[in-house]
């Protein structure tokens, strides 16, 4: 699809009300099930319903239908003054002047009906990205004392009801005119521009304006201009009210839609203190608002007055990619139904957890589509331009249609980590399908048969047999460490993509054989699973370090400490794990290489380590310890300090510090399973994760999602395989130093050497 063709889809914005027919006496009503078609062009062409509703269907009313059917319509019964007890002890109404300003209780039955309609239905159009529901809860309350806001509610409700033939078609105009009379006195520079009630009223009237477009034939954007004036006025208050912020987000969604349809710049200020474009942990509403602001930035880039600079284009592309990779798991579709061409369907039907997620997805798709159409790096003429345009068309089709093909995954090994990988691919990766598992252990196969058998997932005893499973695309290797390399290489030779649990092997030499095998099949994706790189907190710390918040990182201090297991598990495990540094500290070593921006160990100067068997003396038979410390020295003087343990009393205790020349970053310095604190007679306590999985389960899911995306989209894996070899080489050297008591030196090639030879 060429740029000009794409843009013609937005030249006419018309209101399309998807509300089911409402019988005269039956509102509030419940819309269709919350399935949202990702037909982005069609939805954008139709425009947001009433603007305030963003790009999603109106939510179902939360009130009980049976109760509402039993409640007579206010317009059917005469209204009178309520009993005095209804106002008893309302101190805010004690003065006659205050009581005179409050319009409730309403005396006009028609206005009571309009208010009821707003409370039960219309308000939901505006609160799709606001869990605090300002337009449902605060706007009606403020309307008690604000005639403009109250008349705006009446104007909007009466217009929507009149479109259904359920109310006087001229009533909306009367209420609208009354609002205009009250708003006409507001001028530029007036303190009334800081009145949140007037801003909220303007938001409602803008939605009314959109409803009137089919009737008038044109959209004069009068109230959109009013929103721009209100939102571009900054008051002396340091913090905007919740209602003002909610109004801003609704207004911005309206502005983005109209700016796109008119191919004009954004006229609402994108510089407010409450705008957060970071990628830190936040609510779904915040994630939605972040991508909406990004979409506004993209519209500004495409249709603004400034030249389209390649640097700005790359910045926007990077934010789009970072946002996509940082979204929380709540953005995973609940259900997916591929388009059925036989039914005339061109796009899939996808169900999400909330309306804010739907709005996020739509604005993300819109931003990506616009960036594809406005790429300043495209060649201007020649065959190269035609080739690039064809590639752009293919990319645009992928944005539109979201191919339903799923990665067919098999999991090898169903021990403590294998079970969790299998469950992840089964339920947490929307673009993957678990089709097979394998284990030589009978108990593990029995568990798999009970868990996955009812869903048609094959359970194999033989790994080699699983590799022959028809249609298998990828293998997750989660078996014993000693067979990681062997199974990974077999999968590569069989033409399968590979996600291998860390480490690749217990020695660098064997680990390198996996790298060599992967080099023979560059068409495959082979990745070692270092889960902490996918943890949102570590990613946030890395982003802050990368932008220079702490200066040059110089010292890296990290620990992996498991909860004490008195069963003897870690003793038996030590026979195959490679030792405490290869099994535990391997994660911290990988983090150090990542934060120090080193893909290999070529800059390692020396390592040394010590250890103790504090609770498990039997570990000595495998040259292992239950507590160990290590130091890694880089050739440029940077230092890595590592601590690992198998005897934590409270639970999993993994933390990291990155110390720079101008500051320090810490991750999980005070471990906590959640934000709950227990206050007891003996003191205050807070629970911590009980094992590694509890601490990093979201990171494991993100790891599986991104690996799947790489396989299906043919993009680079986020963790280079050579880094996995470097981590093993350093870990094995630390293990050797701990056992021998000697400091180990490396030459410039990353090979162990005697200090005198350096």
TrEMBL record:
<dbReference type="InterPro" id="IPR021858">
    <property type="entry name" value="Fun_TF"/>
</dbReference>
<dbReference type="InterPro" id="IPR000683">
    <property type="entry name" value="Gfo/Idh/MocA-like_OxRdtase_N"/>
</dbReference>
<dbReference type="Pfam" id="PF11951">
    <property type="entry name" value="Fungal_trans_2"/>
</dbReference>
<dbReference type="GO" id="GO:0005737">
    <property type="term" value="C:cytoplasm"/>
</dbReference>
<feature type="domain" description="Gfo/Idh/MocA-like oxidoreductase N-terminal">
    <location>
        <begin position="408"/>
        <end position="523"/>
    </location>
</feature>
<keyword id="KW-0560">Oxidoreductase</keyword>
<dbReference type="GO" id="GO:0000166">
    <property type="term" value="F:nucleotide binding"/>
</dbReference>
<protein>
    <submittedName>
        <fullName>Putative oxidoreductase yisS</fullName>
    </submittedName>
</protein>
<dbReference type="GO" id="GO:0016491">
    <property type="term" value="F:oxidoreductase activity"/>
</dbReference>
<comment type="similarity">
    <text>Belongs to the Gfo/Idh/MocA family.</text>
</comment>
<dbReference type="InterPro" id="IPR036291">
    <property type="entry name" value="NAD(P)-bd_dom_sf"/>
</dbReference>
<dbReference type="GO" id="GO:0006740">
    <property type="term" value="P:NADPH regeneration"/>
</dbReference>
<keyword id="KW-0539">Nucleus</keyword>
<dbReference type="InterPro" id="IPR055170">
    <property type="entry name" value="GFO_IDH_MocA-like_dom"/>
</dbReference>
<feature type="domain" description="GFO/IDH/MocA-like oxidoreductase">
    <location>
        <begin position="539"/>
        <end position="665"/>
    </location>
</feature>
<dbReference type="Pfam" id="PF22725">
    <property type="entry name" value="GFO_IDH_MocA_C3"/>
</dbReference>
<dbReference type="Pfam" id="PF01408">
    <property type="entry name" value="GFO_IDH_MocA"/>
</dbReference>
């Amino acid at each position: 699809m060429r740029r000009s063709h794409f843009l013609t889809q937005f030249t006419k914005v018309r209101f399309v009300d998807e509300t089911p027919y409402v019988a005269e006496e039956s509102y509030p009503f419940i819309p269709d099930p919350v399935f949202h078609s990702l037909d982005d062009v069609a939805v954008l062409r139709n425009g947001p319903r009433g603007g305030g509703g963003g790009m999603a269907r109106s939510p179902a009313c939360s009130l009980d239908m049976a109760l509402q059917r039993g409640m007579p319509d206010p317009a059917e019964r005469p209204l009178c003054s309520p009993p005095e007890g209804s106002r008893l002890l309302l101190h805010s109404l004690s003065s006659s002047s205050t009581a005179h300003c409050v319009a409730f209780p309403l005396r006009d039955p028609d206005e009571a009906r309009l208010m009821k309609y707003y409370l039960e239905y219309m308000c939901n159009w505006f609160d799709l990205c606001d869990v605090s529901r300002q337009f449902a809860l605060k706007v009606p309350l403020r309307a008690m004392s604000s005639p403009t806001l109250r008349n705006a509610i009446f104007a909007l409700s009466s217009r929507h009801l009149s479109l259904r033939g359920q109310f006087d078609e001229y009533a909306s105009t009367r209420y609208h005119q009354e609002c205009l009379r009250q708003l006409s006195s507001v001028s530029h520079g007036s303190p009334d521009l800081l009145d949140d009630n007037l801003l909220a009223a303007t938001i409602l009237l803008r939605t009314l304006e959109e409803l009137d477009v089919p009737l008038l034939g044109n959209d004069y954007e009068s109230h959109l201009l009013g929103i721009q004036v209100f939102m571009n006025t900054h008051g002396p208050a340091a913090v905007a009210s919740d209602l003002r912020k909610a109004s801003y987000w609704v207004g911005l969604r309206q502005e983005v839609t109209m700016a796109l349809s008119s191919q004009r710049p954004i006229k609402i200020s994108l510089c407010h203190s409450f705008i957060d474009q970071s990628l830190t942990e936040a609510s779904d509403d915040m994630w939605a608002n972040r991508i909406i602001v990004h979409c506004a930035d993209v519209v500004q880039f495409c249709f603004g007055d400034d030249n389209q600079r390649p640097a700005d284009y790359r910045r926007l592309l990077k934010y789009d990619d970072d946002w996509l990779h940082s979204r929380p798991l709540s953005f995973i579709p609940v259900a997916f139904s591929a388009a059925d061409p036989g039914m005339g369907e061109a796009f899939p039907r996808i169900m999400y957890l909330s309306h804010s997620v739907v709005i996020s997805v739509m604005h993300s798709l819109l931003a990506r589509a616009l960036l594809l159409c406005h790429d300043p790096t495209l060649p201007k003429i020649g065959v190269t331009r035609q080739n690039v345009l064809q590639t752009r068309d293919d990319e645009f089709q992928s944005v539109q249609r979201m191919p339903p093909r799923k990665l067919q995954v098999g999991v090898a090994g169903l021990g403590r980590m294998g079970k969790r990988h299998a469950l992840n691919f089964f339920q947490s990766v929307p673009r993957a399908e678990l089709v097979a598992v394998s284990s030589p252990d009978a108990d593990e196969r029995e568990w798999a048969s009970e868990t996955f058998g009812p869903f048609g997932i094959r359970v194999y005893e033989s790994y080699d047999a699983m590799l022959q499973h028809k249609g298998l695309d990828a293998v997750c290797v989660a078996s014993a460490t000693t067979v990681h390399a062997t199974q990974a290489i077999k999968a590569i030779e069989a033409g399968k993509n590979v996600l291998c649990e860390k480490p690749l092997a217990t020695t660098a030499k064997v680990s390198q054989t996996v790298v060599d095998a992967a080099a023979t099949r560059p068409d495959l994706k082979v990745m070692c699973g270092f889960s902490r790189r996918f943890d949102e907190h570590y990613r946030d710390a890395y982003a802050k370090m990368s932008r220079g918040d702490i200066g040059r990182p110089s010292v890296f201090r990290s620990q992996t400490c498991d909860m004490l297991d008195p069963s003897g598990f870690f003793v038996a495990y030590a026979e195959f794990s490679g030792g405490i540094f290869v099994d535990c500290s391997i994660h911290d070593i990988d983090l150090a290489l990542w934060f120090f921006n080193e893909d290999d160990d070529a800059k390692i100067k020396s390592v040394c380590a010590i250890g103790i068997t504090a609770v498990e003396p039997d570990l000595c038979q495998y040259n292992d310890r239950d507590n160990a410390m290590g130091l890694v020295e880089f050739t440029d003087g940077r230092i890595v300090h590592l601590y690992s343990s198998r005897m934590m009393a409270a639970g999993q205790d993994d933390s990291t510090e990155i110390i720079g020349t101008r500051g320090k970053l810490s991750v999980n310095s005070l471990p906590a399973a959640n934000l709950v604190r227990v206050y007891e007679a003996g003191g205050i306590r807070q629970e911590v994760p009980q094992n590694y999985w509890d601490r990093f389960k979201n990171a494991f899911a993100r790891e599986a999602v991104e690996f799947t995306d790489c396989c299906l989209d043919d993009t680079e894996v986020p963790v280079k395989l050579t880094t996995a070899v470097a981590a093993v080489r350093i870990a094995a050297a630390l293990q050797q130093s701990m056992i021998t008591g000697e400091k180990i030196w490396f030459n410039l090639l990353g090979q162990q050497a005697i200090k005198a030879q350096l």
